[in-house]
């Protein structure tokens, strides 16, 4: 696994026109729909994906290979911050959120930030355009260059 995605699930649900319409009628249904779209989107991609939701799990959602974490009595943002803080290499993390303070924390920890609105567009685009593929490849290459640069031992 080269990259890690942490997705602020409730933030994405609220900012996605398609998913927020479902959420207004059926909270669990919107979560299930999001996971279904994420499974399709990440199919065949070499990355680890964790979706963080506020609240409690009401019905189990079959999500393998994606991980789902529920915050229970506190905010999911707290769990996301803990996960980033405990990561061996936060530079490998792409944080999907439009929550300003959470995105700021992610930036401070050297995560790549992808707004929920931009990710929503990517999620519902049938096929990535060559420009999107080039942008994603460029970001992944830059990320690897920074990792290599800062993990290389200096010669004495």
What is the strand and helix layout of this fold?
Elements: E1 3-8, H1 9-15, H2 17-25, H3 27-42, E2 47-53, E3 67-70, H4 76-86, E4 93-96, H5 100-108, E5 112-114, H6 116-123, H7 130-151
Parallel strand pairs: 1-2, 1-4, 2-3, 4-5
Give an overview of the whole structure.
The structure is a single chain. This protein has 156 residues and is α/β, with parallel strands linked by helices. It has helices at residues 9-15, 17-25, 27-42, 76-86, 100-108, 116-123, 130-151; strands spanning 3-8, 47-53, 67-70, 93-96, 112-114. Helix 1 (9-15) crosses helix 2 and helix 2 packs antiparallel against helix 3. The protein is globular, with a radius of gyration of 16 Å.
Can I get a quick summary?
With 156 residues, this protein is an alpha/beta fold.
Features:
single chain; 156 residues; alpha/beta; 5-stranded parallel β-sheet; 7 helices; 5 strands; 53% helix; 15% strand; globular
């Amino acid at each position: 696994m080269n990259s890690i995605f942490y997705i602020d699930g409730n933030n994405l649900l609220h900012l996605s026109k398609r998913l927020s319409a479902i959420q207004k009628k059926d909270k669990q249904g919107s979560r299930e729909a999001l996971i279904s779209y994420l499974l399709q989107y990440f199919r065949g991609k070499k990355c680890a994906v964790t979706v963080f939701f506020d609240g409690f799990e009401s019905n189990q959602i079959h999500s393998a290979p994606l991980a789902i974490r529920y915050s229970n009595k506190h905010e999911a943002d707290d769990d996301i911050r803990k996960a980033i803080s405990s990561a061996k290499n936060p530079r490998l993390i792409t944080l999907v959120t439009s929550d300003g303070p959470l995105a700021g924390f992610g930036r401070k920890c050297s995560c790549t930030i992808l707004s929920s609105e931009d990710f929503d567009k990517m999620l519902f685009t049938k096929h990535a355009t060559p420009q999107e593929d080039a942008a994603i490849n460029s970001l992944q290459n830059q990320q690897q260059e920074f990792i290599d640069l800062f993990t290389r031992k200096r010669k004495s």
